Amino acid sequence: MARYTGPKSRIARKFGEAIFGADKVLSKKNYPPGQHGQNKRRKTSEYGTQLAEKQKAKYTYGVLERQFRILFEKASRTKGITGEVLLQLLESRLDNVVYRLGIAPTRAAARQLVSHRHIVVDGKVVNIPSYQLKPGQVVGVREKSKSLENITDSLAGFNHSKYPWIEWDEATKSGKYLHIPERADIPENIKEQLIVELYSKQ
Q1: pTM for this one?
Q2: N or C, fewer C-beta in 10 Å, the chain?
């Protein structure tokens, strides 16, 4: 399966949430897409509800099915509550931290910055969006990329105190990944237990 490149508003309407950020279309058409989107639908089955939650998490973080399953298997082997550990692994991805630091306005834009070698970790270029950060590592903008308009525009006025697990240094245009975030500090509206229940059936 290739990464979804279609209209993001369509996906947001499917879940009834602005999972990619502010969405003008969603505010006007707060119902599922398609010919029968405004009609009453049949009650979703338990499996359907669990599957939809997994799909929402995948679209939110921009992760493909195989990557998502690998992360889930890793979470299930890690000490702690599996659903919470899964979200913590997703939050620890380099592309997500670049987004959380305000270096990019969306996760998709963050993935592009990482892939195009604009991002450094502990001073070294890392071009793998799925790179798993460890507490104490520093994520920054490559020296020759600091003047890029899309980066400066994204950082302008960004509230860097939103996330207590990362710390921003304006002088060096870098942020430190302080610690793995607690579930209460992850703002995404994802019912991770439903995802755990889905995988437990497979």
Answers
A1: 0.82
A2: C
pLDDT of residue 202: 76
Beta-carbon-side half-sphere exposure of residue 174 (alpha carbons within 13 Å)? 19
Beta bridge partners of 168: 175
**Residues 191-201 as b or e (16 or more Cβ within 10 Å = b):** ebebbbbbbee
**Spatial distance between the Cα atoms of 47 and 102, rounded to a whole number of angstroms:** 36
pLDDT in tens, 11-32: 656 656 666 665 455 456 655 6
Measured CA to CA, the distance from residue 153 to residue 106 in angstroms comes to: 12
Q: Can you list the domains of the chain with their CATH numbers?
A: 8-89+190-200 (1.10.1050.10), 93-179 (3.10.290.10)
Q: How far apart are CA 63 and CA 61, in angstroms?
A: 6
